[in-house]
């Protein structure tokens, strides 16, 4: 049946996909006579598949995916596949392959993913790989160690079409910053950076926060003015700073991962705030929903929130958790008699109903030093009819959602 299907396919391109390691060797060897027709090669590595030197001429190959946890035998893979558009390797690239990667990948790559590759990728070779593929659109390196050459020299590379780049846990925080700062990206590029600080709160001080903050600030300046600044934290010990644009593509996303450390989100959070303040003060939209859910009232995150509230005078849209403590901060002017977020007109709360919201709306309406709220969005909230009537009498637009996506206008 299989042989008949291949014969009937005539000269059509073939997509080879095999994820069962015990079958991949026999499958690929069976298809070797038709290698000139392969358009896709997506396989899990097994030592029975390749051993010793292995050379293939693949003139039609455009998509290559190799997945393996280790190579137990010496393998020399030589592909003649100058038409490759997409390459993805997961724990499947031994060190001695790296110098020849750019040779057999050609110069037409549009997508390159390297994951869990621990040896042999030097930053100069990585930059050269990007340079010789000017049409590259998507680059993702994850849990892949990148090394400095000797002597250290990193070329600046033009990447005019690289609109999605992710550099995640490259083994060195400094090398991540060196790579991204030596790439000349289009202004609408989407950039994601992740750093591992291994659960040690003291290591935060070792981060080049000033350099990272300057890079973020420079990227923010290229985004449309209607971008949302999103600062987030999660139970998996990630602190993130995201600036997605209202249009689908461009954003800057910086995340820190602390493993299983306790209470270490705050030092980095506090360090980033003053460094980014000059560029953030002109922003109009801020989303603090997940970060404030993670930071409790008795830790330094709240003083930071207070300072942001006063200094971000231009802000008119704010998203926060539905917290009684946070709403109290918004209701009452601080000692200086200045309102937090004085120009705030649109507020989004995530979580249960808080009666203090009504006081906040009334107080802002009565004080000319603060803008009155024009809209309120309540996510994952149950509101009784009396509270809902009071709310709609104070605000011209109310949106309520109970599910994950559905948003229902009330007024």
Q: Could you characterize what this model shows?
A:
With 411 residues, the chain is α/β, with parallel strands linked by helices. 28% of the residues lie in helices and 27% in strands. It has twelve helices and 23 strands. It has a 17-stranded mixed beta sheet. The protein has a two-stranded parallel sheet with strand order 3-5. Helix 7 packs parallel to helix 9. The longest helix has 16 residues. The protein is elongated and about 80 Å long. The protein starts with a helix and ends with a strand. About 5% of the residues have low confidence.
- Strand content range: 25-35%
Number of strands: 23
Tell me the structural class. Answer: alpha/beta
The share of residues in helices is: 25-40%
Question: Mind telling me the C-alpha Rg?
Answer: 26 Å
Task: Calculate the terminal CA-CA distance, rounded to whole Å.
Answer: 63 Å
Described by strand count, sense and barrel closure, the largest sheet is: 17 strands, mixed
Mean pLDDT equals 75
What ranges have pLDDT less than 50 throughout 5 or more consecutive residues?
Answer: 199-205, 260-266, 404-408
Shape: elongated
Number of helical segments with 4 or more residues: 12
Features:
17-stranded mixed β-sheet; 12 helices; single chain; alpha/beta; 28% helix; two-stranded parallel sheet; elongated; 411 residues
